[in-house]
Amino acid sequence: MNWDNTDPGGWNEAGVYSGFQVGQRTTLNEGSIENKGIEFEGSYVLTDAWSLNGNFTVMDSEFTEFCDVLSAGGNWRLPADGVAPVTGVSCVDMSGNTPPEISTSSYAIGVAYAAPFGDSWNLRGRLDLRNNGPQWMDTANVMKIGERNLVNGSVTLSNDTMSARFYVANLLDDDTPRHASIGTHWGANGATSPRGLLWTPTRPREMGVELSYSF
Amino acid sequence: MYGDRIFNEGIYASVNYQLSDRTTLSAEGRLQSDSIENNYTLRGHDEFLANSTDSFQPRVSITHNLTDSLTLYGQVAKGTNPAGVNIGYMDSEVIETIGLANASGHVTYEFDTFRTFKEEELTNFEIGLKGTTLDDRLSFTAALYALKWEN
């Protein structure tokens, strides 16, 4: 996927489509899908204070029967990739393709700490890594987002009335998009029906402190 | 602008049968009716669409305690994702532009192709192992599954 040149005919440098469009959020059936997989999950108590946890999933997923109406007609085009319009049919057979938004592998590992701190305080902390394997974002398996690794952590010091929490989200500042889609838009005069590319960025690294007091 | 009214009615029953000291067979079923009604009043419209699903969702499972801390299980279950509507396809502007896009060959579907979507049925086969060891310090689950979505 050439993310820098997805629809040179319709979008300007500011990312604004030049024509008027009418779009409609749509829920539609995606035929028959088979998923086969293995999952492992476990936790280990290292000491009274420290524990480890993790999970791992491997999955094979494919369309066993799906003729995609949205991929037929002259508007199916990703010119930057040279995908030719599929014309002359009412739908395009996607059997054998991987359904969108499914990772064929993912895992998570984490370490946690919880113990008294002094006479009246408690100290808790955790650090987690969550991995999601690459995912196709479309039924034709043209548009793919890469592997994502999110590391989140926090340390909390609290007693009966007060708590102070330091947290960090996306410690590695992973900037892989969370989601992408090719939206179908209909030109108001019917003369053009481009597919707008929409993508949702991952939130950048965020750190903060939360203080609370119970009256 | 959009207004959903969702109704769910269901009857659920389950039964467990102790095959032996270590083995339990369970069977359960849910008869369910789901319906959705949707109004669309954007830009002076007053449109209405509804869809409904009647389903039976059975589940049969068996668990066998290999030891006091290790359990083998298997299950077969069926589930459903109820049918629904895309009310926006009642909008006259959407109807007109899809008609034009269809006439000029940009799309092959009609203005009413996506107004409703069908129920999706899930069949799940799963076997797994759950247990604890090392003085209960290590707990684990392993599962092998096959899912089939159909509509």
Explain this structure to me?
Chain A is mainly β. Chain A contains no helices and 15 strands. A seven-stranded antiparallel β-sheet of chain A has the order 2-3-6-7-10-11-15, with no helix packed on it. A two-stranded antiparallel sheet of chain A has the order 1-13. A two-stranded antiparallel sheet of chain A has the order 4-5. In chain A, strand 6 and strand 7 form a beta hairpin. The model of chain A is unreliable at 5-21 and 76-82 (pLDDT under 50). In chain B, 8% of the residues lie in helices and 66% in strands. Chain B has one helix spanning 92-103, and strands spanning 2-18, 23-40, 47-67, 70-81, 84-85, 116-117, 120-133, 138-150. In chain B, the strands form two sheets. Chain B has a six-stranded antiparallel β-sheet with strand order 1-2-3-4-7-8, with no helix packed on it. The longest helix of chain B has 12 residues, at 92-103. At the A-B interface, strand 2 and strand 13 of A face helix 1 and strand 8 of B. Strand 2 (32-45) of chain A pairs antiparallel with strand 8 (138-150) of chain B.
Task: Give a summary of the structure in a few sentences.
The complex is a heterodimer of chains A (215) and B (151). Chain A has 215 residues and is mostly beta strands.
